[in-house]
Amino acid sequence: MYYADWIRVISVHSVILVHCIMNAADSTELDRDQVEKKEGIFKTMAQIGMPMFFYISGMSSTFFNAEKHGYLSFVKGKANRLLVPLFLAILTLLVPRLYLSQDIEGWTRVDDKVENNFFVYLFKVLPTLPQKLSWLWFLVVLFIVMLLNYPLMAWSQRRKMKK
Asked: Mean pLDDT throughout 35-48?
């Protein structure tokens, strides 16, 4: 699966490039031609980067032996690989980022007020986290897609074994 690593490298760099272009464009004043170029690059790179992540995840799921391990083992493995990092990222990255940007971004506030105590903010923001997942949406969507695609994957593996 050497080529899968290179696909991952290309997709990661394309996503990083898109975010860099967006942030650079937001911090500078661009004329109309530059805005159009930025939008063109953004659309092209966005159409490459994120679908590649889904492709790589789909490729790796084909190595799971559905006949031997079953659906519950598949769900447990995907939860360990996707949901555990999601919860850790929420606690260590997302909530502190939301807390620190309350003064700048209104959508990060709870009840439209700036909360100065982190732990009070943490418990207030927890019910609203699904709307504030930001860049972590990918892990949730990937988990759901994997669960929905399991029957197709198991069917295709059984079909391949019959040949």
From this structure: 75
